[in-house]
Amino acid sequence: MKPFEKILTKNMSNPQYTGSLQDYEATGGYQALKKVLAGVPQNDIIEMVKKSGLRGRGGAGFPTGVKWSFLPKDYQGPKYLCCNADESEPGTFKDRQLMERDPHQMLEGMAITCYTIGAEIGYIYIRGEFRFGAKVLERAIEEAKQAGHLGVNVHGSGVTINLYVHAGAGAYICGEETALLESLEGKRGKPRVKPPFPATHGLYQKPTVVNNVETLANIPHIVSRGPEWFAAIGAPPKSTGTRVFCLSGHVKNPGNYELPVNATFRDLIEELGGGMRSDKPMKAFIPGGASAPFLTPKHIDVAMDFESVAMAGSMSGSGGVTVMEEGTSMVWAALRLMEFFYHESCGKCTPCREGSSWIVQILQRIQNKQGRQGDLDTLSEICKNIGGRTVCAFGDAEIAPVQSTLQYWRHEYEALIQEAEALRATRKEKEIPVLSL
Amino acid sequence: MATTKTKKMVTVSIDGKSIEVPEGTLVIEAARQVGVMVPHFCYHPKLEPDANCRMCLVEIEKIPKLQTSCSTRVADGMVVRSSVPHVETARKSVLELLLGNHPLDCPVCDQGGRCDLQDFSHEYTMGSRFTELKRVFPKEHLSPLIETQMNRCVSCMRCVRYCDEVMDAKALAPVGRGTMTKISHWAGNELECDFCGGCIQICPVGAITSRLSMYDFRPWMLKRAETICNFCGDGCQMTVQRKDEDLIEVNSTLGAGRNDGDLCARGYFGYHANVHADRLMHPLIRQADGSFEEVTWEEALERAADQFAQIKAAHGADAIGGLITARCTNEELYAFQKFMRGVIGTNNVDSSARYGYINGVKALQRVQGIHRWAVTFDDIVEADVVVLVGTSITETNPITGLKIKQGIKKNGAKLITLETAIPAFSTISNITTLATHHLTVLPGCFGAAVLGVIKGLVEQNLVNERVSSQASDFATTIIAAVEKISWQEIQQSVGLSLEQCHAAAQTISQAERVVVLAGQGVLRATGGEGIVTNLLDLLILAGHHGNEGSGVGVLAEENNEQGAIEMGVVTEYLPGPTKADDQTTQTMLAKVWGRDVPSTPGATMVEMLDRARQGTMKAMFIVGENPLESLPPDAKVSEALDALECLVCQELYLTETAKKAHVVFPASSAVEKDGTFTNTEGFVQSVRKSLDPLGESLPDWEIFSALSVLMNSPMEYGEVKEIFKEIRGVIPQYGLLGPTSTPHVVNAEILAQYLREGFKEDVEVRYTIPQKAAKSEGALTLVLGQSIYHSGKFTTRSKGLSQIQESGVLNVNPDDATRIGVEDGASLRLSNGHGEVTVPVKLVDRIPLGVAWFPEHFDQELRALFSLTVDKRNHVPCWKTTEVQATRVS
Hints:
The structure holds 2 protein chains of 2 kinds. Chain A is α/β, with parallel strands linked by helices. Chain A folds into 3 domains: 10-232, NADH-ubiquinone oxidoreductase 51kDa subunit (Rossmann fold, 3-Layer(aba) Sandwich); 239-325, Ubiquitin-like (UB roll) (Roll); 330-427, NADH-ubiquinone oxidoreductase 51kDa subunit, iron-sulphur binding domain (de novo design (two linked rop proteins), Up-down Bundle), CATH 1.20.1440.230. Chain A contains 17 helices and 10 strands. Chain A starts with 9 loop residues before the first helix and ends in an 11-residue tail after the last helix. Chain B is α/β, with parallel strands linked by helices. Chain B folds into 4 domains: 9-83, Ubiquitin-like (UB roll) (Roll); 222-371 and 557-733, Rossmann fold (3-Layer(aba) Sandwich); 375-549, Dimethylsulfoxide Reductase, domain 2 (3-Layer(aba) Sandwich), CATH 3.40.228; 780-888, Barwin-like endoglucanases (Beta Barrel). Chain B has a 7-stranded mixed sheet, sandwiched between helices. In chain B, strand 3 (57-60) and strand 4 (67-68) form a beta hairpin. At the A-B interface, helix 14, helix 15 and helix 16 of A face helix 2 of B.
């Protein structure tokens, strides 16, 4: 692996770094904000971010500068920035660390973004369980206000930037940007039908930008060091910069690791993660959070940028890499994730709501050795009928573990079903046949 | 701006059929227009698309994924395919998924036979592979009227969305997540809401059904009759359904009638009021000992005819008076006044329009020369600004209220409310919460409040230039008149500030289409005609009057008050309405009727009762009206009725008034007869019979006809249509049903006359703030008002509505309650010079400080506290407000 410079976790890599305003300013913090407020035209910042190639770090990887440019230019009235800090994807825990350990980095990013899009208010929608993170952020906002980095007339520029922390109430779906907006408005967290998109009809039906924590944390660095510097890192032109990857599962050293976006899974798992935790070889890994289809050891040399992972048949999503060793039941793994998705399906769309409960029940049966012939066909059928048929991407996400395990480890399912058939033959009571109409 | 814009048309092709539709049309609607029915659960034309059921997926060329046709808008050249195999597969899969968790309990489901899930299953599914466990919700109680079976729910959220988007009640919400989502009221409490029945009507499956007729029917057993509701002036279309001779339920059809499928609590749950077991089944004659005896029709009719004839012979026709309820059909109202004028020979004829509606119609007639609104419900929806003055619109005219909500929510209209209720949220809708400007006006102060707004307009120089140049006399007089009124006076009288009035006036002035609606608070007040006239002045000064989409409307409380006035069932009007002394009409009627039309001026209701007490009125014929319970004891109605030599009552029930009668005729209710009603905006609509008359009861017109025969002056009508034919000949506006052939346009000549001369007559009186006695320390203003759940005393007999509200509870502001020291559910003793009454108390946020509100439907005891004032101009009895001291009952 080539040597590289950490961007987002550089400060916190220093054991002395507390994340206080003083520490952050000592590393050059808030200079980028001062620089833009001193008179960089807003369009220039958008162009800068576009040129940097920064893509959303929440999962979908949408180019950030392009997203900002969708806001109506001459809109009179309030606009909003929402920071999506509802990090709930199983296997993903990078935003938490970025917020807890270096809150000002993200706040500065938010302040610059607010200025750029013309929003006076920015909300941080933080996952309800992140009590500590919320406290850290609130303290940091207070500090920044005292220092004049936030509030009315920031650094004498006449610009008002107020940031608020809003804690969620424990729904995974509120990480979906429109559900997040609904929840922030005080409504039930359910995704909205798009179009219209948040860029024109977002929070309170006003133009709104929703960005992930890590995305926003990159902004001050792009502003200070220029888009060319950022665009040179990673795999330009499509995937640039670094990402904080979350490594978990059966590895020696799980944790957050910042790497250029195009580093390979091998770099992450073997070099930084120290390889497998025992002598058992790797059996599978999830490359980008629970919503990403499973990959196999033969994909270990795939680069982790959006395109490469997509080529391999999965997605780099939120950057949560979960490694599983030989001996792990793939049916069990799929079931475990499916139970999560069933629990978190908001219930808006029929396919996702009903499909997730059906799939869970079938998987439970197979796992409990009560599977039947035909179950696997039914499973694939249900998955096919969920994918692409729902309002938000949750439907596509929830079928990923089932479809990918069926693709690579179908024999495990079949073995369990055969076992069930064999068991059934030894039972005295006859099972009631299923009527086929 | 809400004006109807011509939209760009685009061409789309759906299943090979091409159609041109306005840009922005939803694909599902465009499909319907070419005859392609896209199956759906969550879509409803009244609601914003939610695209949650995923049933309406279609293929659209150039878009890779299937799209929901309920949320996708057409684009030019779009090619849509709705019946290709993979679209059908997608629909089958949605159905398979929905049926997975559905209990398939169709045999015991009231929706069975008219259920979308059943119908689509029949059309699409090929069986189910679902062999797992179904989710099961424990049975929960939502309301005595509304049954929920959440196991049947398909989570389309139509009920929740309707409750929020259309009713603005927000009484229902989804609780839980995923498959365990269920519909519930706030914190799982028993439902408290508008009870419009909309959730039941809009549910595509059997998840929400009515408990009033639960398990009593299968839909295909029902016989339907399309008719008009008889509970308020809105004139809603409803479909009354019966099984054999039992009323089973009432629905309304989307797109039909003035209500477009929406109903209110009275319309949806109140129908049993017509057929309560207490209905009079036989004619009654009072015996010497005071008891009633059931007699044959012949006996009863002969007795009444004899009495009327004797009294007429002995004391003249004017010793007889007639009073009829405006709940009757136009035909009956017409026949009644013809009976009184032509057969008896007197102008002593009056109806319940006298309770206040007459004030409104007279003002309209006076200023604009038409006795109908110059606007329609559609104009309310399209208005830029709606002004409500003393309406309590959700309670009195709920569907007109929905038009306002629709205008606000869909077209961004602004609302100005001069109302007693204050903005406060609850799960019962409150129109003032939607107001851009809310001006709290206590009962009895609406006149002063209107003057405040006019003053606001004048002070900000917002008087329209065209008006001040073309009608300079009018403008300068009014400007001078309002300048004489000081803000201090307004502040003291009604509690409104300069800023409030200025803001409201500015909003009115800036808009293009302004609709002003005046309700009972204005119409039933003394000087009510003057207040409505002032509202017309306001619109004239702002330059809106006479423009398309602008105008003043007055709200009728009873279903046919407009009709009653047009049929000439008020003393001062002949059918038309034309003035009773109008010779041309008299001659015309005499020719049509073949009888003389009396020329002596008649007596109004209050005058008739006065004359009865004085002994000059000897007999009265009271049809469906109940003055004894509609007026306070202070009006001495009881004494008046006791003094009569002959009282003939024609009634559905033995009311307090009917108990004093010598002869009682059993009449049929609105569901048992044909005819027409004219709603408050002037639409004449057909009433159709759904049941045969109960017992021996007869439609009112048949009784009048029979009586006239016995009085040797037969009005021979074979069927009700013949009366309508006669009405058509007499009143040109009744040429067509529905929107009348005469467009509602202001008569420019009369208006010009008003602006030149007419306004002067009473301008001084109208532009003076009436002196108000200072309120004594700690006193409450007690108001009798209409509840959202009842219509007069009539519906207190409805088994559905009485389950929502079966007795009166005094609503007071929580802060007043704290001051008095009374808690929710405790009792208060109300007292004033007239007496004292103890009533239970409920704390309600929307009641303003210093007011205690009580539903008029249960005012039996409370009436004693009120005194009657009779409006000088139109003899309207005003009495619904009084002052009381309230003390806690320990």
